[in-house]
Write a structure and sequence with these properties.
heterodimer, A: 260 residues, Rossmann fold, seven-stranded mixed sheet, four-stranded antiparallel sheet, 11 strands, globular, B: 271 residues, mainly alpha, 0% strand, ABC transporter permease subunit (chain B), transmembrane helix (chain B), transmembrane (chain B), MetI-like (chain B), MetI-like_sf (chain B)
């Protein structure tokens, strides 16, 4: 089976600073990939290049075997930790926005029958994320968890090929976090999503993911900390049904590089 | 209890707010009365009776030359200039500020120019305006526009450019084009800030209006004040100044009220 998203020898460099080096990845459709790693290991940079917010300095990224333009587009949805909903729009209108952009290039607003159809679709999506009773609230009137639910609904209504989550539950308290985990797992299977999630929370990475990637630097020069970039040091496919994590292939040997 | 923790109720805060104003009025009355005790013809601190008398002539009796009720004609002329000036500034701030804020190439091209214009003291341009537009209404309105529009443009462009990056990215992942992003994401979020910018520009706008009227005009609140100054007519100047203050406060209140009405989301809407 060919991969939905492929990264071929991707490097991200800012001037002399190498953030990511030699990242090769194939992500299959329907997988839930968690990315973990220490701060500064390029987790967010990796997400940014996949999102199209930045172009990799070397290498290529292929979505369905076509190279990605270094620009965000509706084929890749995103949920950030904060600020991903529009404060000036109500819940319903926030969700409607994606449909309006596609169907009304000039006014970005829908009228009449098309608006009613779109509204019904948005409402259905909001019910799916559990915001069915809060259609007319503004984001400022909602809790952090509800805002993230909205951000997810907003992204999913575009039916993105890949959903990117950048520490989506990092700012939520444990109870809400557990609810959100249940929600994202349900949506992932209901809508057959392909998800890439960056997280700080290792437990979260293993509970939600079907595959966990750990980013870190393989080589480290103490005199030039920016000389070497991070790459994927562990790639752990998880068998969800048995709920056993099988540590994979080359992990240990690669780790020994750190001692050089 | 610490002063930082004291909460003032609505009734009390009105009372407290009125107190210094009442004290100032009282102080004025005492000073005026003591000057009048020394010299019944004192013109520097007129008594309220004298002010009412002088003002009633302007308020209710048509001027012999023009046949107008001068006070109302002055008010109308000044408010018209102010309104047109503010209107043009607000509209240009919205258009230019939005484009500058959202589109980096436009910002790179035009923001030095806007900054350059903004740092010129507008009064220094007044002679140019008079030469270019003559002494009529255009020059006065142009002074207000040149005086406040660059500030408003910069303020709005800054605000729009500072919208969270996440929002802009999110909009693009929802399929928004630059135009749609400007129309549906940046413009609505710029509106409350625009009203804020108008409120802040209101003070300078009045300064430029009164200056322009003082220098070359035949009607207007500023013109009247500077005209009667020649006769030491404090009995007209003081009520006029109070009236200008009242108008400014009313406009400010109207702006705050409309912002709260129109942009509920921007004012920490309660549940």
């Amino acid at each position: 089976m060919s991969a939905l998203l492929s990264l071929r020898n991707v490097w991200v460099e800012y001037g002399d600073k190498v953030v990511l080096e030699r990242v090769n990845l194939d992500i299959e459709a329907g997988s839930f990939v968690s990315i973990v790693g220490p701060s500064g290991a390029g987790k967010s940079s990796l997400l940014r290049v996949v999102l199209g917010q930045e172009a990799p300095s070397r290498g290529s990224i292929l979505l369905d075997d076509t190279p990605l333009a270094p620009e965000c587009g509706p084929d890749r949805g995103v949920v950030f930790q904060r600020y991903s909903v529009f404060p000036h729009l109500s819940v319903l209108r926030n969700t409607l926005f994606g449909l309006e952009c596609a169907q009304a290039p000039l006014t970005a607003r829908l009228f009449g029958g098309r608006r009613r159809t779109a509204l019904a679709e948005a409402e259905e999506m909001l019910i799916a994320v559990g915001l069915g009773d809060n259609l007319h609230l503004y984001p400022a009137e909602m809790s952090g968890g509800m805002q993230q639910r909205l951000a997810i609904a907003q992204a999913l209504i575009k039916r993105p090929r890949i959903l990117l989550l950048d520490e989506p539950f990092g700012a939520l308290d444990p109870g809400i976090k557990a609810d959100m985990h249940a929600l994202i797992t349900r949506l992932w299977s209901d809508y057959s999503l392909t998800v890439i999630m960056v997280t700080h929370d290792i437990k979260e990475a293993f509970t939600l993911g079907t595959r966990v990637l750990a980013l870190d630097k393989r080589r480290h020069d103490p005199h030039a900390p920016n000389r070497f970039g991070a790459t994927v040091v562990y790639d752990l496919p998880l068998n969800k049904r048995q709920a056993v994590s099988a540590p994979a292939e080359s992990g240990i040997t690669i780790d020994s590089f750190n001692n050089i | 209890m610490r002063w930082v923790n004291r909460r003032i109720g609505r009734g009390n805060s009105i009372l407290l707010g009125a107190l210094p104003i009442a004290l100032l009025v009282l102080l004025y009355l005492v000073a005026a009365a003591s000057r009048h005790a020394d010299n019944p013809n004192d013109k520097i601190l007129p008594m309220p009776g004298a002010m009412a008398e002088a003002m009633s002539a302007l308020l209710f009796q048509p001027d012999q030359l023009s046949g107008k009720l001068l006070f109302w004609a002055d008010t109308f002329a000044s408010l018209q200039r102010l309104g047109i000036g503010l209107g043009i500034s607000t509209l240009s701030a919205l258009l230019v500020g939005l484009v500058l804020g959202v589109l980096p190439p436009v910002r790179a091209t035009f923001s030095p120019l806007v900054t350059g214009i903004a740092v010129i003291p507008p009064i220094a341009l007044l002679p140019i305006l008079f030469i270019a537009f003559g002494l009529g209404e255009t020059a006065k309105v142009a002074l207000i526009v040149i005086g406040i529009a660059p500030f408003m443009i910069r303020d709005l462009a800054g605000h729009v450019a500072a919208l969270p990056k996440e929002q802009i990215i999110k909009a693009q992942t929802l399929g928004a084009s630059s135009w749609q992003l400007m129309l549906r994401v940046a413009l609505p979020q710029a509106m409350p800030r625009l009203i804020q910018a108008v409120r802040l520009s209101l003070g300078p706008a009045w300064v430029f209006l009164i200056s322009a009227e003082a220098i070359a005009s035949d009607i207007g609140l500023g013109y009247r004040i500077f005209l009667v100054r020649r006769y030491l007519s404090m009995d007209i100047i003081l009520p006029y100044v109070a009236w200008i203050a009242l108008l400014a406060v009313a406009i400010d209140f109207l702006l705050v009220w409309s912002s709260r009405r129109l942009f509920r989301w921007a004012h920490g809407a309660s549940h």
